[in-house]
Each structure stands twice: as structure tokens, then as C-alpha cells.
Amino acid sequence: MARDIISIQYPVIENSDSAGVLVVTPQTVSIANGITLENAMNCLNNTLFISITNTSSSDCTLTIKNGDKFPNAMLGDLLLTIAKSATTVLQIQDPARFINKDGAIDIDFGTGFAGTIWAIGKKVGL
After folding, report:
1. Exposure check for the chain: N or C terminus, fewer CB within 10 A?
2. Domain architecture of the chain: domains with CATH
3. For residue range 87-118, what is the model confidence (pLDDT) as tens digits?
4. Distances (CA, A) of 64 to 14, 19, 90, 94
């Protein structure tokens, strides 16, 4: 399966301000393809947020696939229910569980899902 690639979006933090500003760009999900969230390993722990808007009329599943880079991938996939007609925001506490050797995270969507996804994070070192 050729996955759709999305990039993590990073807020711009000005030196004169302690707030970050970002206008997000959601990407429409093709459930047949799934999503690869590239460069997810560039985020500090607790700073990766994934937002999923489910526009379908029923609850759907989302699977964050276990990775192949770190030992805690043995915990397996994470299967979540995404509420119908709602936006769900996930905070990934420890992305290492899901990181692949290329630094990406793979996400699959259950039958009937329709909607968008976007991710924001803070780069390591900021």
C-alpha cells in the first residue's frame, strides 16, 4: 500500500514572545492508503499532537501502528475509537513505541472513516 505522507507542522516561536503561532493545514484522509506521519522522531516527548476530524455519521477506528526501531514497539499497535462528527486530538506521550526506522509513524483508518488529519509538534532543541 502506498501511504499518503503528511508532515508535522511546527508553530513559529518569536524571540520576543513566548507563544507559538500556527495556521494548520489539514489533509483529507484516504482510508485505502493510510497515513505516514514523516519525521515524527523530530518531536520532543509529550509535544506531538495529532488531530483527527471524523466527518462520518458513525464512530470509526484508528490504528497507530507499532514501529520497528525501538524495543517498546513490542507493546503493539494502538487501536482507538474516533467519535462521529467530532474532532479528536491525541497527545503522543512516547512516540518511540510507534517510530519506524525512517523516523515516521504509520496510521491506518477503519472502514467508514471520512475526514481530515493534521499533526503539530515542537522540534527537538527548541
Report:
1. N
2. 4-13+25-120 (2.60.120)
3. 999 998 878 899 999 999 999 999 999 999 99
4. 33, 29, 11, 12
